[in-house]
Amino acid sequence: MDITLAIIVVSVIGVVGAVILVVAAKFFEVQEDERIGLVNGELPGANCGACGYAGCSDYAKAIVENGDPVNKCVVGGEKVAKAVAAVMGVEAGASVKQHAVVLCQGSTANCKPSFEYQGIKSCAAAAGFYGGPNACKYGCIGFGDCVKACQFDAIKVVDGVSVVDEEKCTGCGACAEACPKQIIKVLPEGKTARVLCQNKDKGPVAMKACTTSCIGCMKCVKVCQHDAVKVENFLSSIDPEKCVGCGECVAACPKHCIVMG
Predict the structure, then answer these.
(1) 189-240 pLDDT per residue, tens
(2) Residue 8, Cβ density class (10 Å: 0-12 exposed, 13-18 middle, ≥19 buried)
């Protein structure tokens, strides 16, 4: 009898507790806007972080709850922007396609090693050892940390230097983040000139390190009629906002380190 009573009491307590939990769950329930799931369903699911958020679900919440722009997904581009805009009932806005650019031409033919490296085949590891084994301490090390970081098979190491396949590249920036030399930049597509070099040494020193190194000769600055080119720390750089793609600086560069992008 005592055991039966105990079982009944415990059962009643369990039922009462369950009812309390159900009521509490309903009372404290936070209703999520169903549009978050719809927007997230239109996003590509790459979770690359190029939009500025930790992943697609966080970006979806920011769009719905904070009114963030719908065209920040560089992986999905214009197609995804329009789909998300349709869910939100807003205009998609202009979506400029971007892709990664390796600002280096230090292939094995152009840049020789300064010592034989026998450590871990990682750019980050090699960079910590006298700046890496190549003569140019500013250029691509060529061990492929960027290749491992890319989810889209859009970057390869060819003859000792990373090369981007623009057709596959989504502009997510994972390769740029992985590069210890910071020579990979995500830039808007368009016919603007780009300096494929990051060497900041004086001309004679730079030339010894790499045959296609910028030598800071100022010829590109002199021919530019749009004030788009400047040389600082013996390295040329081009302002994409001012560049009109005329190609004068490309033709003037004696080291062929300026190209049209």
Answers:
(1) 878 999 999 999 999 999 999 999 999 999 999 999 999 999 999 999 999 8
(2) exposed
Neighbours of 70 (CB within 10 A): 24
Question: What does the angle CA 50 – CA 199 – CA 146 come to, to the nearest 5 degrees?
Answer: 35
Please list the alpha-helical segments (H only) found in 29-55. Answer: 34-42
Distance CA 231, CA 218 (A): 7
Six token digits for residue 103:
């600002």
CA distances from 63 to 50, 119, 171, 172 (A): 15, 46, 20, 19
Cα→Cα distances 106→70, 203, 237, Å: 38, 16, 18
How far is the C-alpha of 156 from the C-alpha of 47, rounded, in Å? 22
Q: How far apart are CA 57 and CA 59, in angstroms?
A: 5
Local structure of residue 134 (DSSP, 8 states): B
8 A C-beta contact, residue 212 and residue 255: yes
Which three-class secondary structure state does DSSP give residue 203?
Answer: helix
Task: Give the other-Cβ count within 10 Å of 242's Cβ.
Answer: 12
Angle (CA) 81 86 88, round 5°: 95
Write the CB contacts of 227 (distance below 8 Å, at least 6 apart in sequence).
239, 242
pTM score > 0.90 for this model? no
> Mind listing the pLDDT tens digit for each residue in 148-194?
999 999 999 999 999 999 999 988 899 999 999 999 999 888 789 99
Which helix (H) or strand (E) segment holds residue 195: the answer is strand 193-195
Give residue 31's Cα distance to chain centre: 34
